[in-house]
Amino acid sequence: MRKVTFRASFSILIAVAIIIGLGIYVVRYIRHGEDWALYFDDSTSGCTYQLTDRNGVSLATMEHGGRYYSPDEGIRISCYQLIGDYAGNVGTGIIQSFEKELSGYNIITGIQENDDVILRVTVDSELNKVAYNALAGRKGAVIVSNYKTGEILCMVSSPSIDPLNPPEKLPDGVYLNRCISSSFTPGSVFKLITLTAALENIPDIYQRTFTCTGSIEVNGVTLNCSGCHGTQTIEQALANSCNCAFGELSLELGADTIQKYADLYGLTSSCTIDSIVTAAGSFTKDTAGSPGLAWSGIGQFEDLVTPYGMLRVVSAIANDGTVVEPSLLGISDKTTTLINKTTADKLADMMNYNVAFKYGTGTFPGLNISAKTGTAQVGEGKENHAWFVGFLNDDAHPYAFVVLVENGGSGLGAAGAVANTVLQAAVNNS
Could you give the CA distance from residue 383 to residue 372 in angstroms, rounded to a whole number? Predict the structure, then answer.
Protein backbone atom coordinates (compact mmCIF):
# COMPACT_ATOMS: atom_id res chain seq x y z
CA MET A 1 0.00 0.00 0.00
CA ARG A 2 2.83 2.36 0.87
CA LYS A 3 4.45 1.67 -2.52
CA VAL A 4 1.20 2.53 -4.32
CA THR A 5 0.85 5.75 -2.34
CA PHE A 6 4.47 6.69 -3.00
CA ARG A 7 4.15 6.00 -6.73
CA ALA A 8 0.94 7.97 -6.95
CA SER A 9 2.49 10.95 -5.16
CA PHE A 10 5.57 10.78 -7.34
CA SER A 11 3.39 10.68 -10.49
CA ILE A 12 1.47 13.70 -9.28
CA LEU A 13 4.72 15.61 -8.67
CA ILE A 14 5.93 14.75 -12.17
CA ALA A 15 2.60 15.90 -13.64
CA VAL A 16 2.74 19.15 -11.69
CA ALA A 17 6.34 19.74 -12.83
CA ILE A 18 5.32 19.13 -16.45
CA ILE A 19 2.41 21.55 -16.15
CA ILE A 20 4.63 24.21 -14.56
CA GLY A 21 7.26 23.65 -17.23
CA LEU A 22 4.70 23.96 -20.00
CA GLY A 23 3.39 27.13 -18.39
CA ILE A 24 6.86 28.64 -18.26
CA TYR A 25 7.46 27.65 -21.87
CA VAL A 26 4.18 29.20 -23.05
CA VAL A 27 4.93 32.46 -21.23
CA ARG A 28 8.45 32.57 -22.66
CA TYR A 29 7.15 31.70 -26.11
CA ILE A 30 4.65 34.54 -26.01
CA ARG A 31 7.35 36.96 -24.85
CA HIS A 32 10.30 35.75 -26.93
CA GLY A 33 8.88 33.64 -29.76
CA GLU A 34 9.58 36.38 -32.28
CA ASP A 35 13.26 36.50 -31.28
CA TRP A 36 13.56 32.70 -31.52
CA ALA A 37 11.90 32.62 -34.93
CA LEU A 38 14.15 35.34 -36.32
CA TYR A 39 17.26 33.67 -34.90
CA PHE A 40 16.52 30.26 -36.38
CA ASP A 41 15.30 31.60 -39.71
CA ASP A 42 18.81 31.65 -41.20
CA SER A 43 19.19 35.42 -40.88
CA THR A 44 15.65 35.91 -42.21
CA SER A 45 16.67 34.55 -45.63
CA GLY A 46 13.04 33.77 -46.36
CA CYS A 47 11.73 37.11 -45.13
CA THR A 48 10.85 39.79 -47.67
CA TYR A 49 9.70 43.24 -46.65
CA GLN A 50 9.56 46.83 -47.77
CA LEU A 51 9.52 49.80 -45.43
CA THR A 52 7.98 52.90 -47.00
CA ASP A 53 7.01 56.42 -45.99
CA ARG A 54 3.41 57.66 -45.95
CA ASN A 55 3.49 58.24 -49.72
CA GLY A 56 4.86 54.82 -50.59
CA VAL A 57 8.45 55.99 -51.08
CA SER A 58 10.88 53.16 -50.29
CA LEU A 59 12.97 53.66 -47.16
CA ALA A 60 14.46 50.20 -46.70
CA THR A 61 13.99 46.76 -48.25
CA MET A 62 14.95 43.19 -47.46
CA GLU A 63 14.70 40.61 -50.25
CA HIS A 64 15.69 37.01 -49.45
CA GLY A 65 18.70 37.96 -47.36
CA GLY A 66 19.65 41.09 -49.33
CA ARG A 67 19.38 44.33 -47.39
CA TYR A 68 18.86 47.62 -49.17
CA TYR A 69 18.30 51.28 -48.33
CA SER A 70 16.59 54.03 -50.31
CA PRO A 71 18.34 54.90 -53.59
CA ASP A 72 17.92 58.58 -52.64
CA GLU A 73 20.95 59.78 -50.65
CA GLY A 74 18.98 62.66 -49.12
CA ILE A 75 16.38 60.24 -47.76
CA ARG A 76 19.04 57.90 -46.40
CA ILE A 77 20.72 60.73 -44.51
CA SER A 78 17.65 62.65 -43.28
CA CYS A 79 15.85 59.47 -42.19
CA TYR A 80 18.84 57.64 -40.73
CA GLN A 81 18.02 57.89 -37.01
CA LEU A 82 14.34 57.31 -37.76
CA ILE A 83 14.95 54.13 -39.77
CA GLY A 84 18.17 52.91 -38.18
CA ASP A 85 20.40 50.43 -39.99
CA TYR A 86 20.72 46.69 -40.43
CA ALA A 87 23.65 46.58 -38.00
CA GLY A 88 21.35 47.73 -35.20
CA ASN A 89 23.44 50.79 -34.31
CA VAL A 90 20.36 52.95 -33.73
CA GLY A 91 18.47 51.13 -31.02
CA THR A 92 15.28 53.16 -31.51
CA GLY A 93 15.27 52.85 -35.31
CA ILE A 94 12.26 51.38 -37.08
CA ILE A 95 14.24 48.42 -38.45
CA GLN A 96 15.06 47.37 -34.89
CA SER A 97 11.92 48.50 -33.08
CA PHE A 98 9.36 47.18 -35.57
CA GLU A 99 11.15 43.92 -36.36
CA LYS A 100 7.99 41.94 -35.67
CA GLU A 101 5.87 43.98 -38.09
CA LEU A 102 8.56 43.85 -40.78
CA SER A 103 9.16 40.10 -40.46
CA GLY A 104 5.48 39.25 -40.70
CA TYR A 105 5.84 37.19 -37.53
CA ASN A 106 2.70 35.53 -36.21
CA ILE A 107 2.52 33.91 -32.78
CA ILE A 108 0.74 30.86 -34.26
CA THR A 109 2.51 30.35 -37.58
CA GLY A 110 5.87 32.02 -36.92
CA ILE A 111 7.56 33.77 -39.87
CA GLN A 112 5.74 33.15 -43.12
CA GLU A 113 8.27 32.71 -45.89
CA ASN A 114 7.51 34.13 -49.33
CA ASP A 115 4.96 36.56 -47.85
CA ASP A 116 5.89 40.09 -48.91
CA VAL A 117 5.42 42.52 -46.00
CA ILE A 118 4.92 46.22 -46.66
CA LEU A 119 5.12 48.48 -43.62
CA ARG A 120 4.10 52.06 -44.31
CA VAL A 121 5.05 54.60 -41.66
CA THR A 122 3.48 58.03 -41.19
CA VAL A 123 6.59 60.13 -41.91
CA ASP A 124 6.94 62.07 -45.18
CA SER A 125 10.52 61.44 -46.33
CA GLU A 126 10.53 64.56 -48.51
CA LEU A 127 9.57 66.66 -45.48
CA ASN A 128 12.41 65.01 -43.57
CA LYS A 129 14.79 66.12 -46.32
CA VAL A 130 13.48 69.69 -46.05
CA ALA A 131 13.97 69.68 -42.28
CA TYR A 132 17.46 68.20 -42.43
CA ASN A 133 18.55 70.75 -45.04
CA ALA A 134 17.04 73.58 -42.97
CA LEU A 135 19.22 72.57 -40.02
CA ALA A 136 22.16 73.10 -42.38
CA GLY A 137 24.61 70.82 -40.62
CA ARG A 138 23.86 72.11 -37.13
CA LYS A 139 23.09 69.71 -34.30
CA GLY A 140 19.41 69.61 -33.59
CA ALA A 141 16.01 68.00 -33.85
CA VAL A 142 12.82 68.62 -35.81
CA ILE A 143 9.56 66.81 -35.13
CA VAL A 144 6.12 67.53 -36.61
CA SER A 145 2.86 65.68 -35.99
CA ASN A 146 -0.83 65.95 -36.74
CA TYR A 147 -2.29 66.77 -33.34
CA LYS A 148 -5.75 65.53 -34.38
CA THR A 149 -4.65 62.07 -35.55
CA GLY A 150 -1.31 61.61 -33.78
CA GLU A 151 0.52 60.80 -37.03
CA ILE A 152 4.19 61.81 -36.93
CA LEU A 153 4.92 63.54 -40.23
CA CYS A 154 8.55 64.53 -39.72
CA MET A 155 11.27 63.26 -37.39
CA VAL A 156 14.83 64.44 -38.03
CA SER A 157 17.97 64.35 -35.95
CA SER A 158 21.19 66.07 -36.96
CA PRO A 159 24.02 65.44 -37.61
CA SER A 160 23.42 62.25 -39.55
CA ILE A 161 25.25 59.85 -41.84
CA ASP A 162 24.61 57.89 -44.99
CA PRO A 163 24.40 54.23 -43.89
CA LEU A 164 25.68 53.17 -47.30
CA ASN A 165 28.76 55.39 -47.02
CA PRO A 166 29.48 56.08 -43.36
CA PRO A 167 32.46 58.35 -42.65
CA GLU A 168 35.58 57.01 -40.94
CA LYS A 169 35.02 59.40 -38.04
CA LEU A 170 31.42 59.44 -36.89
CA PRO A 171 29.79 62.66 -35.62
CA ASP A 172 29.17 62.77 -31.87
CA GLY A 173 25.89 61.16 -30.90
CA VAL A 174 24.96 60.14 -34.44
CA TYR A 175 23.38 56.89 -33.22
CA LEU A 176 21.02 58.82 -30.93
CA ASN A 177 17.74 60.17 -32.22
CA ARG A 178 17.75 63.61 -30.62
CA CYS A 179 13.98 63.88 -31.01
CA ILE A 180 13.29 61.07 -28.57
CA SER A 181 16.51 59.83 -26.95
CA SER A 182 18.20 63.02 -25.71
CA SER A 183 17.15 65.65 -23.18
CA PHE A 184 18.14 69.30 -23.25
CA THR A 185 17.88 72.48 -21.20
CA PRO A 186 14.52 73.92 -22.32
CA GLY A 187 14.94 77.59 -21.57
CA SER A 188 11.81 79.66 -22.03
CA VAL A 189 9.66 76.98 -23.67
CA PHE A 190 9.35 75.64 -20.10
CA LYS A 191 7.48 78.85 -19.24
CA LEU A 192 4.43 77.17 -20.75
CA ILE A 193 4.50 74.74 -17.81
CA THR A 194 4.97 77.51 -15.24
CA LEU A 195 2.21 79.51 -16.92
CA THR A 196 -0.14 76.52 -16.74
CA ALA A 197 0.50 76.31 -13.00
CA ALA A 198 -0.09 80.05 -12.62
CA LEU A 199 -3.37 80.00 -14.56
CA GLU A 200 -4.74 77.24 -12.34
CA ASN A 201 -3.36 78.38 -8.98
CA ILE A 202 -3.29 82.21 -8.98
CA PRO A 203 -6.89 83.49 -9.20
CA ASP A 204 -6.05 87.09 -10.13
CA ILE A 205 -3.35 86.27 -12.68
CA TYR A 206 -5.12 88.23 -15.45
CA GLN A 207 -5.56 91.29 -13.24
CA ARG A 208 -1.93 91.44 -12.20
CA THR A 209 0.85 93.45 -13.76
CA PHE A 210 4.55 92.64 -13.66
CA THR A 211 7.32 95.21 -13.69
CA CYS A 212 10.60 94.38 -15.39
CA THR A 213 13.63 96.65 -14.98
CA GLY A 214 16.02 94.16 -16.56
CA SER A 215 16.73 92.02 -13.49
CA ILE A 216 15.50 90.96 -10.06
CA GLU A 217 17.40 90.08 -6.90
CA VAL A 218 16.68 86.66 -5.41
CA ASN A 219 18.33 85.98 -2.07
CA GLY A 220 21.35 88.07 -3.04
CA VAL A 221 21.67 86.65 -6.54
CA THR A 222 20.85 88.68 -9.66
CA LEU A 223 18.46 87.06 -12.12
CA ASN A 224 18.86 88.83 -15.47
CA CYS A 225 16.22 89.33 -18.13
CA SER A 226 16.65 89.72 -21.88
CA GLY A 227 15.43 93.32 -21.74
CA CYS A 228 13.67 96.01 -19.71
CA HIS A 229 10.02 95.29 -20.38
CA GLY A 230 8.45 97.79 -17.99
CA THR A 231 4.93 97.13 -16.78
CA GLN A 232 3.30 94.09 -18.41
CA THR A 233 0.23 91.90 -18.27
CA ILE A 234 0.70 88.13 -18.07
CA GLU A 235 0.05 87.88 -21.84
CA GLN A 236 2.76 90.45 -22.52
CA ALA A 237 5.14 88.79 -20.05
CA LEU A 238 4.87 85.51 -21.98
CA ALA A 239 5.31 87.26 -25.33
CA ASN A 240 8.34 89.13 -23.96
CA SER A 241 9.54 85.86 -22.39
CA CYS A 242 10.25 87.95 -19.32
CA ASN A 243 12.52 86.23 -16.82
CA CYS A 244 11.64 88.74 -14.11
CA ALA A 245 7.92 88.00 -14.30
CA PHE A 246 8.33 84.25 -14.51
CA GLY A 247 10.99 84.21 -11.83
CA GLU A 248 8.53 85.93 -9.50
CA LEU A 249 5.80 83.46 -10.45
CA SER A 250 8.12 80.54 -9.79
CA LEU A 251 8.91 81.79 -6.30
CA GLU A 252 5.22 82.31 -5.56
CA LEU A 253 4.08 78.94 -6.93
CA GLY A 254 6.84 76.94 -5.26
CA ALA A 255 8.81 73.94 -6.39
CA ASP A 256 6.15 71.36 -5.51
CA THR A 257 3.55 73.02 -7.72
CA ILE A 258 5.86 73.43 -10.69
CA GLN A 259 7.01 69.81 -10.27
CA LYS A 260 3.36 68.73 -10.25
CA TYR A 261 2.69 70.36 -13.61
CA ALA A 262 5.92 69.11 -15.18
CA ASP A 263 4.79 65.63 -14.14
CA LEU A 264 1.22 66.19 -15.40
CA TYR A 265 2.57 67.12 -18.81
CA GLY A 266 4.68 63.96 -18.80
CA LEU A 267 7.96 65.81 -19.15
CA THR A 268 9.67 63.95 -16.33
CA SER A 269 8.68 60.47 -17.50
CA SER A 270 9.70 58.29 -20.41
CA CYS A 271 6.98 57.66 -22.99
CA THR A 272 6.43 55.17 -25.78
CA ILE A 273 5.86 55.83 -29.45
CA ASP A 274 4.23 52.58 -30.48
CA SER A 275 6.88 50.24 -28.99
CA ILE A 276 9.76 52.75 -28.91
CA VAL A 277 10.71 54.00 -25.45
CA THR A 278 11.77 57.64 -25.20
CA ALA A 279 14.11 59.35 -22.77
CA ALA A 280 12.72 61.14 -19.72
CA GLY A 281 13.29 64.75 -18.79
CA SER A 282 13.82 66.00 -15.26
CA PHE A 283 12.91 68.80 -12.87
CA THR A 284 14.94 69.47 -9.74
CA LYS A 285 13.14 71.14 -6.87
CA ASP A 286 15.18 73.80 -5.12
CA THR A 287 14.33 75.34 -1.76
CA ALA A 288 11.71 78.03 -1.22
CA GLY A 289 12.92 81.55 -2.03
CA SER A 290 16.10 80.31 -3.69
CA PRO A 291 17.65 81.52 -6.97
CA GLY A 292 17.53 77.91 -8.20
CA LEU A 293 13.75 77.82 -7.77
CA ALA A 294 13.36 81.11 -9.65
CA TRP A 295 15.55 79.82 -12.49
CA SER A 296 13.81 76.44 -12.65
CA GLY A 297 10.44 78.00 -13.49
CA ILE A 298 12.14 79.83 -16.36
CA GLY A 299 13.48 76.59 -17.81
CA GLN A 300 17.03 76.87 -16.52
CA PHE A 301 18.67 75.55 -13.33
CA GLU A 302 18.72 71.75 -13.82
CA ASP A 303 15.61 71.44 -16.03
CA LEU A 304 15.79 68.95 -18.92
CA VAL A 305 13.19 68.01 -21.54
CA THR A 306 13.11 65.94 -24.70
CA PRO A 307 11.84 67.44 -27.97
CA TYR A 308 9.25 64.66 -28.03
CA GLY A 309 8.08 65.65 -24.56
CA MET A 310 7.54 69.23 -25.71
CA LEU A 311 5.65 67.94 -28.77
CA ARG A 312 3.14 66.28 -26.45
CA VAL A 313 2.82 69.53 -24.49
CA VAL A 314 1.98 71.73 -27.50
CA SER A 315 -0.21 68.98 -29.02
CA ALA A 316 -2.32 68.91 -25.87
CA ILE A 317 -2.60 72.71 -25.79
CA ALA A 318 -3.72 72.70 -29.43
CA ASN A 319 -6.24 69.91 -28.86
CA ASP A 320 -8.29 71.16 -25.88
CA GLY A 321 -5.89 69.70 -23.31
CA THR A 322 -5.82 66.16 -24.68
CA VAL A 323 -2.89 64.70 -26.58
CA VAL A 324 -3.58 62.12 -29.25
CA GLU A 325 -0.53 59.99 -28.55
CA PRO A 326 1.87 60.32 -31.48
CA SER A 327 2.45 57.26 -33.68
CA LEU A 328 4.68 56.18 -36.55
CA LEU A 329 2.33 53.40 -37.64
CA GLY A 330 -0.88 55.27 -38.47
CA ILE A 331 -3.79 57.18 -36.97
CA SER A 332 -3.60 56.83 -33.21
CA ASP A 333 -6.45 55.58 -31.04
CA LYS A 334 -4.72 56.45 -27.77
CA THR A 335 -5.43 59.73 -26.01
CA THR A 336 -4.23 61.24 -22.72
CA THR A 337 -5.74 64.30 -21.08
CA LEU A 338 -2.90 66.43 -19.73
CA ILE A 339 -4.74 69.64 -18.75
CA ASN A 340 -8.32 70.86 -18.79
CA LYS A 341 -9.86 72.51 -21.86
CA THR A 342 -10.27 75.95 -20.26
CA THR A 343 -6.58 76.16 -19.40
CA ALA A 344 -5.58 74.81 -22.81
CA ASP A 345 -7.67 77.45 -24.57
CA LYS A 346 -6.08 80.24 -22.53
CA LEU A 347 -2.59 78.96 -23.31
CA ALA A 348 -3.41 78.63 -27.01
CA ASP A 349 -4.67 82.22 -27.14
CA MET A 350 -1.52 83.50 -25.43
CA MET A 351 0.73 81.55 -27.78
CA ASN A 352 -1.10 83.06 -30.73
CA TYR A 353 -0.69 86.50 -29.13
CA ASN A 354 3.06 85.82 -28.93
CA VAL A 355 3.24 85.71 -32.72
CA ALA A 356 1.07 88.78 -33.27
CA PHE A 357 2.62 90.88 -30.50
CA LYS A 358 6.26 89.85 -30.58
CA TYR A 359 7.40 87.52 -33.36
CA GLY A 360 5.47 89.11 -36.24
CA THR A 361 2.93 87.33 -38.42
CA GLY A 362 5.03 88.28 -41.45
CA THR A 363 7.77 86.00 -40.16
CA PHE A 364 5.48 83.08 -40.99
CA PRO A 365 3.62 84.16 -44.15
CA GLY A 366 0.36 82.36 -44.74
CA LEU A 367 0.54 80.43 -41.47
CA ASN A 368 -1.81 80.97 -38.55
CA ILE A 369 0.64 79.94 -35.89
CA SER A 370 0.70 79.78 -32.11
CA ALA A 371 4.18 79.42 -30.69
CA LYS A 372 6.76 79.96 -27.96
CA THR A 373 10.46 80.59 -28.36
CA GLY A 374 13.20 79.38 -26.07
CA THR A 375 16.80 80.52 -25.74
CA ALA A 376 18.39 78.16 -23.25
CA GLN A 377 21.66 79.02 -21.56
CA VAL A 378 23.99 76.01 -21.46
CA GLY A 379 27.15 77.54 -19.97
CA GLU A 380 30.82 76.70 -20.63
CA GLY A 381 31.04 79.59 -23.07
CA LYS A 382 28.75 77.85 -25.55
CA GLU A 383 26.00 79.48 -27.59
CA ASN A 384 22.48 79.07 -26.27
CA HIS A 385 20.20 76.27 -27.43
CA ALA A 386 17.47 77.65 -29.69
CA TRP A 387 13.91 76.31 -29.38
CA PHE A 388 10.70 77.02 -31.23
CA VAL A 389 7.56 75.06 -30.33
CA GLY A 390 3.89 75.40 -31.18
CA PHE A 391 1.12 74.49 -33.58
CA LEU A 392 -0.90 75.69 -36.55
CA ASN A 393 -4.48 76.91 -36.10
CA ASP A 394 -5.55 75.28 -39.35
CA ASP A 395 -8.22 72.58 -39.62
CA ALA A 396 -6.76 71.38 -42.92
CA HIS A 397 -3.24 71.24 -41.48
CA PRO A 398 -3.45 70.66 -37.71
CA TYR A 399 0.28 70.38 -37.17
CA ALA A 400 2.19 70.55 -33.90
CA PHE A 401 5.93 71.09 -34.08
CA VAL A 402 9.14 71.31 -32.08
CA VAL A 403 12.45 72.59 -33.40
CA LEU A 404 15.69 72.53 -31.43
CA VAL A 405 18.97 73.90 -32.76
CA GLU A 406 21.76 73.05 -30.33
CA ASN A 407 23.95 76.08 -29.64
CA GLY A 408 21.96 77.89 -32.30
CA GLY A 409 21.63 81.20 -30.46
CA SER A 410 18.28 82.91 -30.97
CA GLY A 411 15.09 80.91 -30.52
CA LEU A 412 13.22 82.93 -33.13
CA GLY A 413 16.10 83.57 -35.51
CA ALA A 414 17.53 80.04 -35.57
CA ALA A 415 14.79 77.59 -34.58
CA GLY A 416 11.93 79.80 -35.79
CA ALA A 417 13.44 80.03 -39.26
CA VAL A 418 13.77 76.24 -39.46
CA ALA A 419 10.17 75.83 -38.30
CA ASN A 420 8.90 78.25 -40.95
CA THR A 421 10.74 76.39 -43.73
CA VAL A 422 9.43 73.02 -42.61
CA LEU A 423 5.85 74.16 -41.98
CA GLN A 424 5.63 75.96 -45.32
CA ALA A 425 6.68 72.73 -47.03
CA ALA A 426 4.26 70.65 -44.93
CA VAL A 427 1.30 72.90 -45.75
CA ASN A 428 2.04 73.62 -49.39
CA ASN A 429 2.98 70.06 -50.38
CA SER A 430 0.28 68.18 -48.51
Answer: 19
Instruction: Return all residues near 13 (Cβ < 8 A) that are at least 6 apart.
Output: none
Cα-based distances in Å from 262 to 303, 346, 389: 10, 18, 16
Contact 276, 180 (CB under 8 A): yes
Which pLDDT tens digit goes with each residue over 392-412?
999 999 999 999 999 999 999
Smallest CA-to-CA distance from 315 within 283, 285, 271 is with: 271
- CB burial string 37-56: b at 16+ within 10 A, e below: bbeebeebeebbbbbbbbee
pLDDT tier at 96, thresholds 50, 70, 90? very high
Q: What is the pLDDT of residues 161-175, one digit of tens each?
A: 999 999 999 999 999
Tell me the CA end-to-end span of the chain in Å, nearest whole number: 84
Percent of the chain whose pLDDT exceeds 90: 81
Sign for the pseudo-dihedral over CA of 148, 152, 154, 155: positive
Question: In the predicted model, what is the mean pLDDT of residues 321-328?
Answer: 98
Helix axis angle for 255-264 and 243-253, nearest 10°, is 100
* CB atoms near residue 88 (< 10 Å): 12
d(CA 8, CA 1) in angstroms, rounded, equals 11
Report yes or no: 330 and 122 within 8 Å, Cβ to Cβ. Answer: yes
CB 399 within 8 A of CB 152: no
Residue 77 to residue 165: CA distance in whole angstroms = 10
Q: E strands within 86-148?
A: 116-120, 140-146
Contacts of 154 (CB under 8 A, 6+ apart): 123, 124, 127, 128, 131, 142, 143, 144, 422, 426
Residue 227: CB atoms within 10 A of its CB come to 13
Q: What pLDDT digit, counting tens, does each position of 53-91 carry? A: 999 999 999 887 789 999 999 999 999 999 999 999 999
